[in-house]
Amino acid sequence: MGSRAGVVYLVGAGPGDPGLMTARSLDLIASADVVYYDRLIPPGALAGAREEAELIYVGKQPGVPSLPQEEIGERLIEGAQAGRSVVRLKGGDPFVFGRGGEEGEALREAGVEFEVVPGVTAGVAATAYAGIPVTHRDDASAVAFVTGHEDPTKTETALDWEALAAFPGTLVFYMGVRRLAENAAALIAAGRDPEQPAAAVEKGTMAAQRTVSATLGTIAEAVEREAVGAPALIVVGPVAARRERLAWLERRPLHGRVVVVTRARAQASGFAATLRELGAGVVELPAIRIESRIDSAEVREAAAAIAEYSLVCLTSPNGVRLLFEALGAAGSDARALAGATVAAIGPGTARALAEHGIVADVVPERFVAEALVESLAAVEVEGRQVLIARAAEARDVLPKALRERGAEVDVVPLYETVPEQPGADAVEAAQGADYVTFTSSSTVTNLTEALGDRFPGSARIVSIGPVTSEAVRAAGLVVDVEAERHDVEGLLAALLADARVQPQQ
Fold first, then answer.
1. Catalytic residue among 17, 21, 175, 487, which?
2. Which residues fall within 8 angstroms of residue 55, CB to CB, at 6 or more apart?
3. DSSP states of 116-155 as a string?
């Protein structure tokens, strides 16, 4: 169910981990005409928005004048009254210190229809990721969410420190770093035990999440010493001590590592998601873009004559996907390959074929063209038609070897890789990377040219295989790790093995 015209959706985007966004929030972002978004939304939260949708930043930035709350409300009202579907996207939950209530009241007053889409709030998410249960049968039967940074225009505090000090449960302070020393002192003065366990959780649920443990009496000093910055939560109560047994985030194999992914944007998401699952912070710097060539005359001719080839060689999952698109456009399908021997470089290509109902006849153990040449030694090709469907820019090892054996070889480019200019924010984020991964020689060439002296010099370079490694060295860089299996799974295995023995920077 998508969004409706003339309706404003007050949507919670969750605490920072993109995986904690609700299905409803993603659905609304994908169908909205306009999205007004805050600073603390998960990376990639807007990736699913329509191309023609307006994406308007209305969040606060340190040292930069922010849009007044009243003006944000006016814009929401104007958008809905103009018959547009409007998403107001906020970090966390719109009704938990998110000013969603104020916005809802302004909308109701203006006669504008609105809906509220709850989000996972940091008070339960960041603490859970830190291994701190906000309630526990033995330690706390209640939890209080408290603002640690009240409206500065208030003449007096709305917080009842005596009540909070006596509260029989866990206290979770949002936005509490700046006033931590004052708040901790106020709690202690009101009677809360200074020896009670406490913790500060920085950048909750994100790859860079960090937790500092102390007592209520020492937490301010610990936070200053460890330079904990916003966004951060402060937790006070016996449950904070349970972190010693329940911490799990830091145990993930790539926790705290920043990995640059250079694959084409369409392919990068799966690899990036796997890295995030393993705890890494991922910077996507797509160095190439895949451009289809299946509308060319030579591809149309090859697709129409596919049944005449006795051997069909595919060199990448992209090639498989586009070949079947070309077959579909020609009114054909997998049955047209029934009489051919089908060869694939690498298990990724073989898997892509299997998804279309084709089991590859030949898959070499090494995932390079030379290995496929060796594996095809027993296949009769003399005088027979062979199709090599691949990228436009590729080495001639395979077609040359097959022609030398008497084959009639058609090399048909299904796609080409073109340079992609990485965004300034991503380039900046990459400067602190621990690893840069390269999946092809074109990603090496294009990224090094695009970044120049902004290439993250301290990062270890992980290459997918020997051809890519050759390109890395040609660019004047050092290959620190080369995958034994020359596919994305092999690349990941090599990175994990290296991370186990490399100290964190």
1. 175
2. 34, 35, 37, 46, 49
3. EE----HHHHHHHHTT--SSBTTTBS-EEEEESS--TT-S
35 and 183 co-located in one domain:
no
Question: Whole-angstrom Cα distance, residue 160 to residue 424?
Answer: 46
d(CA 17, CA 172): 19
Can you name the residues that pair with 214 across neighbouring β-strands? 198
175 is catalytic: yes
Q: What is the pLDDT of residues 112-169, one digit of tens each?
A: 999 999 999 999 999 999 999 999 999 999 999 999 876 555 556 678 999 999 999 9
Does the annotation mark 138 as catalytic? Answer: no
pLDDT band at 367 (very low <50, low <70, confident <90, very high): low
Residue type (1 letter), 33 = D
Same domain, 202 and 239: yes
Looking at the fold, whether 390 and 298 belong to one and the same domain comes out as yes
Percent pLDDT > 70 in the chain is 95
Enter the tokens of residue 485: 């299996």
Instruction: Give residue 407's identity as a one-letter amino acid code.
Output: A
Residue 333 belongs to domain spanning:
291-418
Based on the residue annotation, tell me whether 154 is a catalytic residue of this protein.
Answer: no
pLDDT digits (tens, 9 = 90+) for 439-473: 888 889 888 988 888 899 889 999 999 989 999 99
Does 411 lie in the same domain as 307? yes
The mean pLDDT of the chain is: 90
Same domain? For 444 and 302 the reply is no
129 and 89, same domain (yes or no): no
Q: Does one domain contain both 281 and 382?
A: no
Residue pointed to by tokens 């699913």: 48
Output the DSSP codes for 412-473.
Answer: EEEEEEEE----HHHHHHHTT-SEEEE-SHHHHHHHHHHHGGGS-TTSEEEESSHHHHHHHH
Q: How confident is the model at residue 202 (pLDDT cuts 50, 70, 90)?
A: very high
Asked whether 317 and 348 are in contact (CB, 8 A), the reply is: yes
Q: Is residue 1 in a domain? A: no
CA dihedral 11, 69, 107, 49 (to 10 degrees): -40
How are strands ordered across the β-sheet holding 54-57? 54-57, 34-37, 86-90, 7-12, 113-117
Residue 2 lies in a domain: no
Residues 263 and 325 in one domain: no
Residue among 17, 33, 38, 434 flagged as catalytic: 38
**What local confidence, expressed as pLDDT, does residue 81 receive?**
95
CA distance linking residue 70 with residue 446, whole number of Å:
46
The number of domains in the chain is 4
